[in-house]
Write a structure and sequence with these properties.
This protein is an alpha/beta fold and 229 residues long. 19% of the residues lie in helices and 22% in strands. It contains six helices and 13 strands. The strands form three sheets. Strands 5-6-7-8-12-11 form a six-stranded mixed beta sheet. Strands 4-3-2-1-13 form a five-stranded mixed beta sheet. It has a two-stranded antiparallel ribbon with strand order 9-10. α2 runs parallel beside α4. It is globular and about 45 Å long. The relative contact order is 0.18.
């Protein structure tokens, strides 16, 4: 599985850079592609939406492409712009919904996606409604700090973005800027101890927002390999 997140197209990140990213993702031959939110920095002001379609459409994954909403995908009345774009490029938009992923050997797991915490309405009980109890459950949540709530449910893994790894980190002090819902878990791997054990991974994202640079918070493309026990 490949996770990418937070491209924030239109702020500094451009179409040429996205094309290179897509080429890199396809070269890795993923089975599943997961996008965890914030595609465009300001969807309603982004003038190249039509040019995005063939680029995103060219992403290839035999078991599917899945995405969720980030706060910037909702911002500026951009919700329908984002949804229409992703659906037109064969991404499955998981909005408090789940999908059953079945492998060639017949084994399967559940992929669950919830809405953004800042500008959306995340609903975990609704998202889990049709998920079999005995399935491995992988949750996509743009906001990493929702892991504390997710750990009250039988969810195995959570993948998030949103934080940009702080975008700017200072020696000894750590992340300089952390947005709401990304302050407890700014980057990397965490074990969450709630009612159920949960593993959280927070991707640092690709682009930038507000500040046009990164420092000690490298852009990230994440590869995961799932193996049956």
């Amino acid at each position: 599985m490949i996770q990418f997140s937070d491209t924030h197209l239109g702020f500094q990140y451009n179409l040429s850079q996205l094309k290179k990213l897509v080429t890199k993702i396809n070269a890795l031959k993923p089975d599943i592609i997961l996008f965890t939110g914030d595609l465009m920095d300001e969807p309603n002001r982004y003038s190249n939406v039509s040019d995005l379609t063939p680029i995103l459409h060219s992403l290839q994954a035999p078991l599917g492409k899945y995405c969720i909403f980030g706060n910037h995908d909702h911002g500026g009345y951009g919700s329908e712009i984002y949804r229409n774009l992703m659906e037109s490029t064969n991404f499955h938009v998981l909005l408090n919904q789940s999908a059953n992923i079945t492998l060639e050997n017949g084994s399967s797991f559940s992929l669950i996606g919830i809405d953004d915490a800042m500008l959306g309405n995340p609903d975990l009980p609704l998202a889990l409604k049709n998920v079999p109890n005995n399935h491995f459950k992988l949750l996509l949540s743009h906001a990493p700090d929702l892991a504390d709530s997710a750990a009250q449910y039988p969810i195995d893994w959570q993948l998030s973005g949103h934080s940009h790894g702080g975008q700017v980190k200072l020696p000894l002090l750590g992340a300089f800027i952390t947005p709401p819902f990304a302050q407890r878990y700014p980057e990397g791997l965490y074990s969450i101890h709630g009612k159920y054990p949960l593993t959280l991974y927070v991707n640092r994202g690709i682009g930038t927002t507000r500040l046009p640079f990164r420092f000690m918070a490298k852009p990230e493309l994440t590869i995961f390999t799932l193996k049956s026990s």
